[in-house]
Amino acid sequence: MTYSLRVDTPGPTGPRRRNLTLLALLGAVALVCVIAAWRPWATETITAADETGAPAVAAPAPLVIDDDTRLLVFGDSWTYGSAATERSDGYAYVAGRLLGIETTVDGVRGSGYLKAGIDGPSFGDRIAALDPADAPDLIVLQGSINDRRLYTPLYPIAVREAWDRLASTYPAATIVVLGPAPQVLPVEEATAAIDEDLRTLADERDWWYISPLAEDWITDDTYARIIDSSDIGRDHPSTAGHAYLAERLVEALRARTAVTDAAADDTPPAA
Known about the structure:
This protein is of the alpha/beta class. It has a single domain, classed as SGNH hydrolase (Rossmann fold), CATH 3.40.50. Helix content is 38%, strand content 11%. The chain has 9 helices and 7 strands. Strand 6 and strand 7 form a beta hairpin. Helix 3 crosses helix 8. The longest helix is centred in the first third of the chain and has 25 residues. The chain is globular and about 40 Å long.
């Protein structure tokens, strides 16, 4: 924002005039700072303090998943169903069946926020091609480890642009971000960095974030029965692995409806 100060009437000259002009400019700058700090256009967010006394991030609103909920699962090859015996055995399809709701699966192998895929472009370009008329109620936005080779400090910019476009396309939808899951162990450094970036960016928007890394979905003890590391599977979930991931996703989604469910449980039974 640029401020211009114009004086048309006769006034002090010399050093006194320069001092008055300087004071006026400083006053304008101070006013801008006060308004920026106040931010009357912003929605107030009240946060609680954690045990250390630091402000805690406010939790997003509880999810609402009922029989009429329309789900879109958007992501990479894991969402596509790679390495499952049938694509319909992929975790996204199985999760929809477990939830018992109408589910659309949009997965492109090799795709990420920075990386174009085998079957389509990057996340941002794919989101731009989505049909606004589809209007899902709930979106699970998965991935992606495919960005780990291209990861740079500019990564959050690509994510923000894609998320802005998704939120604009489906303004009434609730968006849940499902972070990358490890295809190999130990977790690669870039994959861990992607997970942290996505969590931070989701927190900024008050979106739920599910982290398979933080929640230990895949560990040394479970890796072999979840990931097919053969030449066929190429470090993707096996059919059994997809079923397991679907169960974990559904469990995580239902856990984020807990506040709503708890309120319902407090209702006295009918006499």
